[in-house]
Write a structure and sequence with these properties.
single chain; about 160 residues; mainly alpha; 7 helices
């Protein structure tokens, strides 16, 4: 009789066991997701650090071209190509720094980057002369929109003699 009762409840035990296995699997998936998020944050921070270092190195190696281009002095064809590459690295690095701050969840740093985009970065010759570089940041994703808007507002503000559109 007792064996019969166990046999009748076997499906119930199987359901309970399968639910426990599903709960274990969900916990494993959550742990994996958390680890992936940590890896994304680490990768973003690493990209920002490496990018900043590379940009500084490029600027130092081409300091004469960087200074001439920043002052909007006349550049020959080779210097123009070098200056455009330096500007691309300069603006792209801003995106990497913003991304690292975004993934770290540090709203204070995010707001600081947006402010810098509208002032220091936004008023740079690179932002004024090569508007397509802003577009390259925009294509990286919607999370960059506040950064691109700050760059565009700074470029428009300066090109209109200080008056905003």
């Amino acid at each position: 009789m007792k064996n019969l009762a166990l046999l009748k409840n076997a499906p119930n035990f199987a359901v309970i066991l399968s639910l426990l296995l599903v709960a274990f699997e969900l916990n494993q998936n959550q742990q994996s997701l958390l680890e992936s998020n940590n890896l994304a944050r680490i990768q973003a921070a690493n990209n920002a650090f490496v990018g900043s270092t590379a940009v500084r190195q490029q600027q130092l190696e081409n300091i004469e071209v960087w200074v001439k281009g920043s002052k909007m002095e006349s550049l020959d064809e080779t210097e123009e190509a070098v200056f455009r590459i330096l500007c691309g690295s300069y603006i792209f690095n801003l995106g990497n720094l913003y991304e690292a701050d975004f993934y770290s969840g540090n709203t204070e740093k995010i707001n600081s980057r947006i402010y810098q985009a509208g002032t220091l970065w936004g008023q740079s010759t690179c932002n004024k002369v090569y508007p397509e570089l802003r577009e390259s940041i925009r294509t990286r994703g919607e999370m960059y929109l506040p950064l691109v808007m700050a760059l565009e507002e700074a470029a428009n503000h300066d090109s209109n003699g200080g008056a905003q559109n």
